[in-house]
Structures are given as structure tokens and as C-alpha cells.
Design a protein that fits this description.
CATH superfamily: Alpha/Beta hydrolase fold, catalytic domain
Helix content: 25-40%
Radius of gyration: 15 Å
Shape: globular
CATH architecture: 3-Layer(aba) Sandwich
Distance between the termini: 20 Å
Oligomer: single chain
CATH class: Alpha Beta
Largest sheet: 8 strands, mixed
Mean pLDDT: 97
Strand order of the largest sheet: 1-2-4-3-5-6-7-8
Order of helices and strands: EEEHEHEHEEHEH
Structural class: alpha/beta
Length: about 200
């Protein structure tokens, strides 16, 4: 079961959904959503799939709305303030007694999470679902030591698998890269395949 919570990020109150694991001192996973200006929020089907999959694997999960999305205060800040939101969510899990925290980001959420790691956010592992290399600027991201898993579909024009393949040796050569045949950026008809790929690597 997820419970609605509120936590602060700078001057703003953000809304989130928290699932508490039966082993609260174990793994926590913060899940970040796609682009808010294009309808992205914590109720996105991919985000919900990630939350359900991670919770079933025994993790404490926190998905939340970035500033300006849903009932979260503030406004869109082009990925800058949103990095603070990711850190605030990680801090909230630590404050709840979770010792080890991963971040799993989808699309815009993957980009923001990667930028937050580059800026100094400490997490054990980073998971990126469909990092949108064809849509936003990834050039500031030159090294991602905690990057553990990247998933994309071979029909995804926003997160092209060839561009991801070229970037991975720069980001983290040991990253697992899973390609889902037939899946586009929205994983319509492929959510269970996505869940299975993530489950394999948790």
C-alpha cells in the first residue's frame, strides 16, 4: 500500500506516494516522472509500473510530483530546481530510516536524476528508463559511476538505442543495457516486459 505524503524541497511542499517495505532498513528507491510540460507526473503508467515492481521486490519506494506538477508547489524550472526535488526525495527516505537509496528515472526524470548525480547526489545505483537523448541536452553528463541499468525500446525515437549505446562507454561502461523489441517511448503493450527487465537487475 502506498500512502500520500508531503515533503519539502527548498521553499516548496511536494506531494508523493510512499510505500513502506516490511524491512524498512533495507533498500529504498526514488522514482522520477517524465516531462511535466507534456503531461508527465507520478501517475504515469511507466512510473506506476516501476513503483509496483520495486515494491514487489521488497524495496521502500517514493514516487513524487516535481515542483509545479499535480499538487506540488512551485513551477517548472527546466531541470534545475527539479534536481533539488530528487535530492529532497532521497533525503526523505533516509529520514525514514532507509539506509541504501537508488533512483530510477523515466524520460525527463532520468535526465534530471542523472544531472543530480553529476551535481553530487549520493545514491547507490541509478536506473534510467528511456533517457531522452534526442530531446534534451545530455552533454553535461560525462560520468555516471552509479549507473546500473538503462532500458529503452528499439522503436523509441526520443531515447534512440544507438545514441544510448554510444553514450554508455562515457557514462559507465559496466552498465547493463536492456533493449525491448517493439517498444516505443511510452511502452504501450510492453509494460510487463519493462517490469521484467527491471526486476532482473534489482
Amino acid at each position: 500500500m502506498e500512502e500520500r505524503i508531503s515533503f519539502t524541497s527548498g521553499a516548496y511542499a511536494l506531494e508523493g506516494l510512499l510505500h513502506r517495505s516490511a524491512t524498512p532498513l533495507g533498500l529504498g528507491i526514488v522514482i522520477t516522472h517524465p516531462h511535466p510540460l507534456f503531461g508527465g507526473n507520478m501517475h504515469n503508467s511507466v512510473v506506476e509500473t516501476l513503483a509496483r515492481t520495486c515494491a514487489a521486490a521488497g524495496a521502500t519506494t517514493l514516487r513524487f510530483n516535481f515542483r509545479g506538477s499535480g499538487q506540488s508547489q512551485g513551477g517548472y524550472e527546466e531541470g534545475r530546481g527539479e534536481q533539488t526535488d530528487v535530492k529532497a526525495a532521497v533525503d526523505r527516505l533516509h529520514a525514514n530510516g532507509v539506509e541504501t537509496v537508488d533512483v530510477a528515472g523515466y524520460s525527463f526524470g532520468a535526465w534530471v536524476a542523472a544531472l543530480a548525480v553529476v551535481a553530487g547526489l549520493k545514491v547507490r545505483r541509478l536506473i534510467m528508463i528511456s533517457p531522452p537523448l534526442a530531446f534534451v541536452d545530455f552533454t553535461p553528463i560525462q560520468s555516471l559511476p552509479p549507473l546500473h541499468l538503462v532500458v529503452s525500446g528499439d522503436k523509441d525515437e526520443i531515447a534512440p538505442v544507438d545514441a544510448i549505446g554510444r553514450a554508455l562507454p562515457v557514462w559507465q561502461p559496466r552498465t547493463h543495457f536492456e533493449i525491448i523489441a517493439g517498444a516505443d517511448h511510452f511502452y504501450s503493450g510492453h509494460l510487463e516486459a519493462l517490469a521484467e527487465r527491471v526486476r532482473m537487475h534489482l
